[in-house]
Amino acid sequence: MKKSILCIGAGYVGGPTMAVIASRCPQWNITVADISEARIAAWNSSDLPIYEPGLDEIVQKVRGKNLFFTTDIARGIRENDVIFVSVNTPTKTFGAGAGFAPDLQYWESTARAILEHAGNDKIVVEKSTLPVRTAEAMHRILDNNHKKLHFDVVSNPEFLAEGTAIRDLLDPDRVLIGTMPGPSGNRAGDLIASIYQNWIAPEKIKRTNVWSSELTKLAANALLAQRISSVNSLAALCEETGADIEEVAQAAGMDHRIGKAFLRAGVGFGGSCFRKDILHLVYLAEQCGLPEVATYWRGVVEINDYQQRRFVQRVMNALFHTLAGKRLAIFGFAFKADTGDTRESPAAAIAKMLLEEHAKLAIYDPKAMANARAELASYGDAVEFSNSAAEAARGAHAILILTEWAQFRDFDYAGFYQQMEKPAFLFDGRNLLDHQMLHKIGFTVCPVGRPTLSV
Ligand code: NAD
Ligand code: UDX
Closest ligand 2 atom, CA of 165? Predict the structure, then answer.
């Protein structure tokens, strides 16, 4: 077998994952292909299509050596025997399962392209997050072909988080490889494992059956998101009782059985994965005749929506029950820090709710301005896209912190305060800032799950 890999799908997963594999496996030649000409052109330019700390440096080192970006998918399929597929699998918006099930049209058209252009046996690796039993179905579709070619389908879900993708890929907690039963499936799994063994300890490379691997991806995301909804539900209780969610989460998290990670209260989780994958799990449970299981996991998404509505209601209540015509400075539009991605961003949902109340928004984000403009294009001059945080704050009634960018801590809030309408409010939707310091400046400070510091 040639030591060459094709990855179909040059997105947030395909691009960084292949860049890291190329950097750690110089003996492998890697081609990343996509139907989007614009995306491929950006990968081949100095302005990469996604922002991810450390990504530029890695791409610069390996691009043109053993990492290549192309739109020629057919050629890629002909010339490579190992094909990773990392196309998008968004929530279906039509037909059966609309709003819950994943839309598999991109995955299916990739499988068809592989079948059409393959001239020899292939190993197809599921990198995308897919329904349980997709690998099995794909194996049956691909393997029953008139060309008499043999296909192995391996599940190798990706666990990277945006903003820390390069770190997560270089030093993952585990790599999961699920294979179909039988010697051929095992051999395919061995080959994929041998790629990762170039930089990852063997004990971190976990082999399972293909169905466990597919379900683990949904389970891991559901369990992580469930912690955030749990802590956010407790934050609501804190606001009613005078308890402080930061103290509660810290003290509870000191129990090693609970652990301290993923207990940060805030405006809820965003990103392209959590909501989609939990709704997918809900759909799966319903399809399996397990309505109680479906209801349990649906609750995680419902608390997340509730948390965002509750945040907007707090802003309304504090600002004398009307937002009409009031300028609000929004600090942060990305769904989390260190990314420009705004998919399912709590900031986007909250901004739209505020605009429904006829607020005027001034938005500043270090990396997500282009996506923010696209997301709010229909709101016209009700939204200003500011060049700096100071510009957004000028003349505002309130500052809303909606993304946990570390650099927001270093701003000159005393200077902002001088330029704002009075009374000046600061709603810290991520409990990011020093609230006592802001209060001393003169702000009325409204954190999440902690008492308001009124002036
Ligand atoms: P993305 O939208 O950023 O990228 C997907 C790419 O696939 C796009 O560039 C699109 O043009 C391309 N594509 C679609 N159909 C194609 C086709 N037929 N042929 C060639 N290219 C095609 O998506 P993403 O965020 O990279 O996610 C990809 C998959 O990985 C999803 O299943 C997602 O659930 C999963 N995942 C994402 C993350 C994350 O943090 N974003 C983490 C883990 C897993
Ligand atoms: C997630 C999973 O972490 C990753 O393993 C999977 O591969 C893809 O989905 P991602 O969505 O990129 O990664 O980022 P993550 O760090 O999980 O954050 C998701 C959201 O939860 C963000 O909006 C973040 O701000 C929020 N969050 C996270 C909290 O509100 N509180 C926390 O304690 C942690």
Answer: 12
Percentage of residues in the chain having pLDDT higher than 70: 100
| Lining residues, ligand 2, CB within 6 Å | 158-162, 221, 224, 228, 262-264, 266, 269-271, 273-274, 335-336, 404
Tokens, residue 419: 């330029």
Q: Write down the mean pLDDT value for the chain.
A: 96
Question: What is d(CA 285, CA 410) in angstroms, rounded to the nearest whole number?
Answer: 46
Domains of the chain by start residue, with CATH:
4-200 (3.40.50.720), 209-455 (3.40.50.720)
Name the token pair of 164.
């820390």
Q: Are 211 and 180 in contact (CB under 8 A)?
A: no
Whether the predicted model's global pTM rises above the 0.70 cut: yes
CA of 242 to the centre of ligand 1 (A): 43
- Which atom of ligand 2 is found nearest the CA of 271? 11
Which strand (E) or helix (H) includes residue 7?
strand 4-8
Phi and psi based region of residue 83 (left: phi greater than 0; alpha: psi -120 to 50; beta: remaining):
beta
Q: Which residues are catalytic?
A: 273
